[in-house]
Amino acid sequence: MNLEKLWYKKLPKSYPKSLKYYEGNIADFLAGSAKKYPDRIVIYFLGRKFTYAEIDDLVNRFATSLHNLGVKKGDVVAIFLANCPQFMITYYAALRIGAIVTFCSPLHSEPEIARHLIDTGAETIITLKLKFFYDKINNIREQTKLKRIIISDFRNYVSTKIKILFTIFRFRLLAKVKKADYIYSFKELLKTPPNPPKVIIDPKKDIAVLALTGGTTGTPKCAIISNYNVVVNVTQLAASMSPALGEKIKPEYIPKTFPSEPLRNVQVVIPWFHTMGNNGYMNLMVFWAMSIVLLPRFDPLDYMKIMRKYLPTIIAGAPQLFIPILNHPKLDKFKKDFAQIKIIGSGAAPLPVEHLKNLRELVNPGGGIIIEGYGLTEVTAGAIIGPGLLTLERKAGSVGFPLIDTDVKIVNDDGEEVEVGQEGEIIIKGPQVMLGYWKDPKATAEIIKDGWLYSGDIGYMDEEGYFFIVDRKKDMLKYKGYQYSSRELEEVLLKYPDIEQAAVVGVKTEMGEIPRAYIVLKENANVKPDDSGAKAIKEFVHSQVALYKKIKELIFRDELPVTMTGKVLKRELRSEIEEES
Asked: Can you tell me the mean pLDDT for 196-210?
């Protein structure tokens, strides 16, 4: 069967089949942009603005400080921050000295953060002087290998007005930090004269990021992402999206030639600790020398007000960001502000067709397009995307074509490629595929076979090469763009002393899949199979998992449907849910 790169029949003959990639450090993105556009704003943040030259200088200062503290090439530096300038400074500083970066999500519980820090062996962490951040790290520090906790005061990077208001009205949110030999001030470390060591890296072998996955094979793992993985994926995304910005696709992207784009703004609320936010909406935008209007949180009305002020060329998010905007009662007052948008990027979950139609109506007057894509942490960020070619047909429900230098197939359970239009597992091969799972060769061998990454997601390719995502691995749930394993919740449930059996399945809602737990209690359980019992169990689980993993529904059963070997038949539970709807 010859279905290889069928999508190229739909693309113009001039569309490149391969690119030449820069082989170097990710931090060179920032250095290149700062050299060419030193006075261009890289970040607008809560009333403050920072130029490329300023951030690059701060990166060099912080890189020097990390080196002086004993952080060396190959050491793991954890970032536990919300979207803020400190995130960008820390990220590029750590990479500049050859350290490995890993992210802790503010949405995660203390046990989850501790497990991640222990697994990665991180000895240094950067966080905020806020109770929600610092207290979590302080509570778990002794369980980990942390030697250095570097604390930044949120107020040092906002306008004077916001700083004063925060100090007056939100001072209770500030953490009380006691002096200790492992506590360091981010502000003080930035006073260090910039003189980072020159570190030689092998971009294809040296690890840049340990990115926590959603747990495709059950327990969350760390994908090993190299510098080359990131450089490649950012370049692929840039090449694919450039035509929508009126730019030609370049055959090569290296620090001497990039960036050459005019000044544009991008509005970013996608968390930078998320793989798509980090690569698609930080690294790519720095690569493009764009000005990033950075938001630490999302509110639909505030989001539209900020759009009016900064007139971004690109906005992006998961469908859960666009739905409240489209449904907002004041949308009509802001419709004209969507006219300057050239790209609305949507990922993490499929856009409902009706919402896609409404978004297109908002941006079409100005010639803007909606670009949907598909990716996963194990491919750095993206694998399939709707190219930015303005003349290209955009099929509702399709995530587009594979990125340049990326091959995608649909295979059956035997690994054989299926016919056009037939559903099967999506497998991916390309230079952006991760090196493997951290300290888990067995899981690596299970997901990467002969260079092909088996996604566990179900999809199909139509006769013109467009790809469609149908479903995901049944044990995976995705809510508000965040993916996680139902098995992870089941393992927490089974720690509860009164539970005999537990099964978690997803219930589809507009915002994603909410977890429903089916519970069988032990014979002499102390809790009752009623509302009070459900509340007690939920509280137990919620104390150990991230906010987006909270169990929304809990049903008690006398028994669960099982196979002859005792495995729970989740398909029968899903069938019940489908009958309910």
From this structure: 97
Q: What share of the chain in percent tops pLDDT 90?
A: 69
Structure tokens at 141: 């520090």
Q: What 3-state DSSP class applies to 510?
A: coil
- The candidate with the shortest Cα–Cα distance to 496, out of 475, 517, 477, 521, is 521
Q: What is the DSSP letter of 432?
A: T
CA distance 39 to 111: 43
Task: Give me the amino acid identity at 316.
Answer: A
| Domain at 443, CATH number | 2.30.38.10
pLDDT band for position 392 (50/70/90)?
A: confident
316/370 Cα distance (integer angstroms): 9
Domain ends where: 146, 177, 200?
200
pTM: 0.86
| Residue-range definition of the domain harbouring residue 571 | 479-580
Determine the Cα–Cα distance for residues 263 and 242; give it in Å rounded to an integer.
Answer: 14
Last residue of a domain, one of 470, 500, 522: 470
d(CA 18, CA 236): 9
190 and 101 belong to one structural domain: yes
* pLDDT exceeds cutoff 60 at 258: no
Give the max Cα distance, the chain.
71
Residues 6+ apart with CB under 8 A from 373: 345, 346, 347, 382, 384, 385, 386, 399, 400
Give the count of domains, the chain.
3
In a domain, 263, yes or no: no
The predicted-structure confidence for 2-14, as pLDDT tens digits, reads as follows: 567 889 989 988 8
